[in-house]
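Dear support,

We are seeing what looks like truncated structure output for some complexes. This example has two components. We would appreciate it if you could run it in full and send us the complete token output so we can diff it against ours.
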Amino acid sequence: MKRNLFSLCCMLAVLLGTALPLAAQTSMSVDIYGPGQRQLNIAQATPVPLAEGQPLPAIAASLNDRIGHNLVYMPFLKQMWENDVLGGLTVDKPTADGIDFKRFQLSRVDLVLTAGWEPRGAEAGDVELRAYEALSGQLLIGKAYSDVRPMHVAEVADRFCAELMRVLTGQGEFFLSEIGYSKKEGENRNIYAVRSTGHSTRRLTNLDGIATAESFSFDGRSMVFTHIGRTTHSLGVWNEAEGTKLVRLKGSAVIGPTYLPDGQIAVTLNLTGNPGIYLLDRDFNVVRPLAEGWGINVSPSFDASGDKMVFTSSRAGNPHIFQMNTRTGEISRITFEGKYNTNPSISPDGRLLTYARLTPEGQRIWMRDLATGAERQISYGPGDDEDPSFAPDGYYVAFASSRTGQWKVYLTTRHGDPAIPVDTGSGEAMSPAWNYKR
Amino acid sequence: MKAALRSLFVVLMIAVMAAAVGCSSKQAKSDAPATDDDAKRRAEEEALRQRQLEEQRRREAAALAAAKEEIGRMIHFDFDKYDLKPEARSVLQAKAQVLKQYSNLKVVVEGHCDERGTEEYNLALGEKRAKSAYEFLVLMGIQGSRLSTVSYGKAKPLDPAKNEAAYAKNRRCEFKVGM
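Here is the complete output from our reference environment:
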């Protein structure tokens, strides 16, 4: 079934082959990295049958709702509702010749989404999803999905929204990616992963003890994490084929292992009496120290080249963020404001840094431009916000927050857009990490 | 002369043998009534020995419990600190004395932090706290092979309240005793 669905997705170009070339010419583009993020008004038309007189399958409304749910993850889109649009959200047909674009233009709608259905039995159907530029009537995206059943709704919505975001911003992998997190289960904590839009949860580890501080390899096939047993720490290693194993490393601490782009691992070990950051090869042997010395050195994060590493160090007294050129070994201090700055995550292009700062109101997430030194707060609690993690697109930021009284994972963007909770089910969830589809 | 000595020896031997027979017959006569008393006495002695053993066991168990309680006494730290305060040193000195008495005991030193601050930094801070206690005990003469350390960071607070009193309780080392 999945294979059919996915193969149909791939047949899009055959069915609606002009979509991508048209997208390249559209004026509907948003610079999500720019300082003033543009916001477009988007109207999601009520689904219609592809052939006149046909009934709509029951899942037409489900898919519409799910796409609406996904639009929330794109803060550069403002959803227009029934009362916002002159004459409502109806269209005669899902194609341009069945859309009264003038009504949408008068209502200041920039984008119109349509869904046309052909039923297949009681619960399934074939659907064609389109996005039009309201002003020109130009088709930006067209996608067809065959034999869509209730179990496919979230996946179809994600795939369509990935295309929509890609056409508008050049990025869309967010909708196809997973967020890993450490979930509390009684005295234990284990690693789970969920799609970024909050479905298809899967358990990755099933261990006694605490599994946390996970990091996915750049190819998404492996994951490493800290495991805290009754008497010692271990390096947890997971991959799709072999499952989970625990690797004992020298010393008593294994904290925050992080994959480098080349598949090596940086991790904090205590080999000298002070927790320092060391480079491990693919067989988990220590290759060399990256940052060691007096005090605590922890939480390495690398840009996409692997040349820049940011980390937390107490070498100056209080914990602050430092940057290291991994080629030269040169280390410079980044944060001077505040007394407690931890958990750095650097954007893949190496330009931005996000981190947690302890304020009188609790931990808050901050964003800093590494070139100019300008910084600003991007989360506002209440409770504590910590563990920010840049998505590999450099746009989204996942973090953990106790704002509801329970630790949960949330999403924001580099601009500090309102936080959206990630559906991790019941129980506390923290330590978010991205597993991106590249 | 020789014959006279031989006769005397024979007489003496007979006398000795007669005396021996006489004693054994007296003993045989007194055995029957003495069996119950002896059994009673032996039972009493056995019960006494059991009571003494039980008492000894209790004393040793109480001493071991006291030793474990002493070893298990926590030490506390200031915020974002891992240096040992004077009261922590006193506690560790007492621990070291007990550990010297009970050389079969092993200890896991757990480092813990309060909820402020982030997970990974607190795991490293808890590690430093556990190592501070470990190194002090080693300096006091406790073999390193009897000690191990593990940091839980802020994962296991004793008091979940969000105030300074709770934070102070949670910034600690715990000492878990094993054999």
